[in-house]
Amino acid sequence: MQTDKEMKMRELVRRLNEASERYYNGQEESMSNFEWDEQFDELTRLEEETGIILPDSPTHTTGYEGKSGEREAHEFPALSLAKTKRIDELIKWAGERPVYLSWKLDGLTLVATYDRGMLTKVLTRGNGTVGTNITHLAKAIYDLPQKIAYTGHLVVRGEATISYSDFEELNAMMEEEEERYANPRNLASGTLSLDDVEKVKERKVHFNAFTLVHIDEPMVSWGERMNFLRKQGFVTVEYEKTSAESLAQTVESFTQKVERGQMDIPVDGLVICYEDTVYAASGSVTGHHATRAGYAFKWEDEVAESTLSYVEWSCARSTISPVAVFEPVELEGTTVSRASLCNISEMRRLGIGDKGTKIHCIKSNKIIPKVIGVVEKVGELVIPKTCPTCHAATEIRVSKGSKTETLHCTNPACPAKNVQKFTRFVSRQGMDIDGLSIQTIIRFINQGYICNYADVYTLSAYDKEIKALEGFGEKSCENLKASIEKSKQVHPANFLFALCIPLIGVDAAKKILKSIGWKGFLKRLEEGTGFVDVEGIGPEKSGSILSWYDDEENRRVFQQLLTILNIEDVEADANVGGDLAGLTFVITGDVHSFKNRNEFKAYVEAKGGSVTGSVSKKTNYLVNNDVDSTSSKNKKAKELGIPILSEEDFIHRFGK
Fold first, then answer.
1. What pTM does this model have?
2. Domain assignment present for 579
3. pLDDT score recorded for residue 292
4. CATH of the domain at 606
5. How many domains in the chain?
């Protein structure tokens, strides 16, 4: 019996370590968080039963050490936190002492060191004892101060994250499916393994400080330490002081923010820590956990059983992706009937069969529907031989690195290869057209209504046909027409982003427009002189723009759009010396006088001001129509003495 248990333990260790290696190196994950937790718990139970701890057991190591980059030992070991899914265990751990609750962000942990007010070193967490030195990338990481007022020795830990909104924009810019990432955490991890500082900066990795590890001054209070970091210019993770008596309510308050979709930064749980940092540091080390350093809480995934109705195969670009469509089930307060199956490899791993297969599904981190296993397989997995869009033959491709199997359309002219580009064209960052979801775009392509971007503006010619489609009616058609008409008024930076020019996002477009203006851009485009002299553009991006315009079809559609749209004539150096020059704003909540927050942001920037996503000591004004809100941004603004303006206050003070 002992031998059987040891064999099981060795297999669990192998699986868990393999999954950790992929997870910490930004590769496609080999198992879900749900599965990892289940297998980790099973290994822990077997270790307790047998008294055996295998040398490489993940229960007694602090993480996986990556394979590339210069290694360096941590000054203060970054041990893991014990985890639980039970609130009563959190309450017991808190005891009679005051504690703080904060987010457990889902990114890559970094350790930053400062001496004499300057950032001197940045290490990845690595295996907790040794990390990778990525100091050369420090200037490319947003919200990581290069200089602080404090001149002593300071060490701070934080999470490098990419927001969901930036993740979607960045993934949309990647031409090849194999280059795209499964989630923001993988993208953040993959980004910080690059050597190209400019490329790292483009991917908008943000540093969120979550603990002050060391400071020369006596500072016992954890909350005081976090406030100190804020005053030094760090963006910190949101936190709240609580106690055993009110911990359940505080956890629920944080959880509601996730369930309501209020978190743009990926989170995978919560963390509590003691207010008294001296007491916290006095604990022992059990396995790879510091017993008093903190306690991580992961939401108990609600699991539902359902029956597979069919697998929907959707072609976008050349990749044909599977989606499980199953009998509707209630999960985390919402009805779920669909979940991505990612690729053929994942379907094989899960054991997906045909219609009638019984499956288990969850909403991972209370957000993303996910199939986690097969209860009873019916029939065999059927992989389409033809593309669902153009009906050309399909082929299975295996990626070189991860050996992942994906299905592809072999037709170079398949209309679905433009789906992702159309999705970007109509996105909020692009032409901002409501009512054209990716599913709707696919239907319009298949019906022959859309072949290029300009066709979006002639959809009214198919009014009768569109109204006859399932799910459409008089009102939805009118709303779509109104949204298309409204989108004709556009800022050139959004227009250039919408065109899907490789390597050119909104930020790159703004740099060009600030330097040479819209008319200057058009002139250089026609002359083919390029944009190498524009700061932050360089030969690669300049060449990408010119190559895109050299394509006859791209040039034809571009010229056609110029006759349809009313593009704002932005002049060179529009951002310099305006009425708002030198002022930094944070805009949050709903807006009324402006079309949306992007338009508001564009107005501020056109007047010489800047707009950031989070409140810090560098912020001059927070704009929120709910001035009395108890939101984290309002609280932080009040803490720092930053004025909170309504939109009306802003217009009264600065005009429109």
1. 0.57
2. no
3. 80
4. 3.40.50.10190
5. 6
